[in-house]
Amino acid sequence: MTAVAQVVGVDLGGTKTRFVLTCEDLTVRAGLTRPTPALDGADAMLTTVVEGVRELVRARGPVAAVGIGTAGVVDHAGGRIVAASDSFSGWAGTNVVDVLRAELDVPVVLENDVNAFLYGERSGGAARGLRDVMGISLGTGVGGAIVLDGQLFRGRLGGAGEIGHVPGFGDEMCTCGQRGHLETLASGRAIARRYRQHTGVDVDAADVAGLARGGDPAATRTLAEAGQGVAQAALMVAGILDVHDVVVGGGVAQAWDVLGVHVRSALAQAEPVGGATITIRRGELGGDAAAIGAAALARCRFALPVTSGRAG
Ligand SMILES: [Zn+2]
């Protein structure tokens, strides 16, 4: 029997780590989720990854490679974490690829998690087959990524597409210490905070979406402000890069039914200078997008087979 080249994709997030075991068409054959010991240091996080991969291998057989996506600035070529937020203790400077390769004895690729999300959607989700596309991840924070000519565009330091932290989106204080970033309007935390500002009521972003579905005016206003910010980001990217397709992912995208309408109405009032229409859609891979994308990147990097189906 010919062995199928299985690849594990890992999405190491601030609170949980998601593992998917994928086959050649990027179909997920098995998955598991573990808490991320983000405050316990790099060794604890790497051990979590090693144990998760080994568990999938025990259950499903050997894998040909591992791809891992994680938050922060990533040295993709060197396999190292360049910078990470305070929510990941001791993570900056860690050479993830060297450690995992030695422990697991397979090739490993490291990528920023939002880049992995977009690559996943481009390989087998909402951006399948698009040559140029922008990804915006609306989660606890706001991240961005760009594919140009079918390849991730990382920029010189790996931060290309980080639309969450450029100025021009109001004047509220951002988690990064500066003011007026998209993250202050459209992250999960920002939606909860702004609803509280409007009403004095303490709820989370999912509750705000539920309230908007029920016609709550303050919830609708909060999501309209977030949607206008997302539309403005799409217009910036369209104007600078001539990229007119946008995929939105992250936990806040679950509110797309009550958020997307505001994005579209803001776009309808401000067509890009070039005249091309911006197409903005929700991701299709949900919470598995970054893990699937990390697996797809490993297939690409190590020239493993990809068959049609999900892969575009
Ligand atoms: Zn910021």
From TrEMBL:
Belongs to the ROK (NagC/XylR) family. It comes from Phytoactinopolyspora mesophila. This is ROK family protein. PROSITE patterns: ROK (PS01125). PANTHER family: N-ACETYLMANNOSAMINE KINASE, ROK (REPRESSOR, ORF, KINASE) FAMILY. InterPro entries: ATPase_NBD (IPR043129), ROK (IPR000600), ROK_cs (IPR049874).
